[in-house]
Design brief:
The complex is a heterodimer of chains A (about 110) and B (about 110). In chain A, about 0% of the residues lie in helices and about 50% in strands. Chain A is mainly beta. In chain A, strands 2, 4, 5, 6, 9, 10 and 11 form a seven-stranded mixed sheet that branches. In chain A, strands 1-3-8-7 form a four-stranded antiparallel sheet, with no helix packed on it. In chain A, a hairpin with a 2-residue loop joins strand 5 and strand 6. In chain B, strands 2, 4, 5, 9, 10 and 11 form a six-stranded mixed sheet that branches. In chain B, strands 1-3-8-7-6 form a five-stranded antiparallel sheet, with no helix packed on it. In chain B, strand 6 and strand 7 form a beta hairpin. The chains are: A mainly beta (about 110), B mainly beta (about 110). At the A-B interface, strand 4, strand 5, strand 9 and strand 10 of A face strand 4, strand 5, strand 9 and strand 10 of B.
């Protein structure tokens, strides 16, 4: 089944403790992206990647890192999480091509930083 | 920053009625997409309309795009309780940089 898999689904952590949220897709998509969703603010893009070793900042990249060493994986790293990073996070992927195509989203990771 | 803005923020209708929501955006786009999100779940892609298209249909969905007004509309015909969800428009103005609006919350009552 074509899908984007995020782990973990839920995570509670303490301020300053480094964490990684994994994202993997099995569709051979070039584009991958991370979003956070907060009430009243909709989805905001954190980082995106157009292909292996190519990443770029979205609208809210502060406090986050990403890497794209392989096509299928796009982990999101919080080096020193803070309470304002408590949010619902989504990873998404899409194939390239003229006109683009819709994104396939993961099921989300609900992160709480205390 | 949000590119798209949906209107209305919330919509409550009865089963069988049509639901219409609108999306306005600010800059030129390659395409515009609509997504559905059930509470707390991942977004599901519904339909994509390219900048050179004016109307597109998919099942009970009808999307229009007016690039001169920088606006789009999503019509759901003959709504069902299962259509209860939040609906988001998203604009693609450069490859990979998809930007979402804040969404329209639709409630369909039996």
């Amino acid at each position: 089944e074509a899908q984007v898999t995020q782990n973990p689904r839920y995570l509670i952590t303490v301020t300053g403790k480094k964490l990684t949220v994994t994202c993997s897709q099995n569709m051979n998509h070039e584009y991958m992206s991370w979003y956070r969703q907060d009430p009243g603010l909709g989805l905001r893009q954190i980082y995106y990647s157009m292909n292996v070793e190519v990443t770029d900042k979205g609208d809210v990249p502060e406090g986050y890192k990403v890497s794209r060493k392989e096509k299928r994986n796009f982990p999101l790293i919080l080096e020193s999480p803070s309470p304002n990073q408590t949010s619902l996070y989504f990873c998404a992927s899409s194939s390239a091509g003229a006109g683009g195509s819709g994104y396939t989203f993961g099921s989300g990771t609900r992160l709480t930083v205390v | 920053s949000q590119q798209g803005e949906e209107d209305p923020q919330a919509l409550s209708i009865q089963e069988g009625e049509n639901a219409t929501m609108n999306c306005s955006y600010k800059t030129s786009i390659n395409n515009l997409q609509w997504y559905r999100q059930n509470s707390g779940r991942g977004l599901v892609h519904l339909i994509l309309i390219r900048s050179n298209e004016r109307e597109k249909h998919s099942g009970r969905l009808r999307v229009t795009l007016d690039t001169s007004k920088k606006s789009s509309s999503l019509l759901i015909t003959a709504s069902r309780a299962a259509d209860t969800a939040s609906y988001f428009c998203a604009t693609d103005d450069s490859w990979g940089k998809l930007q979402f609006g804040a969404g329209t919350q639709v409630v369909v009552t039996p």
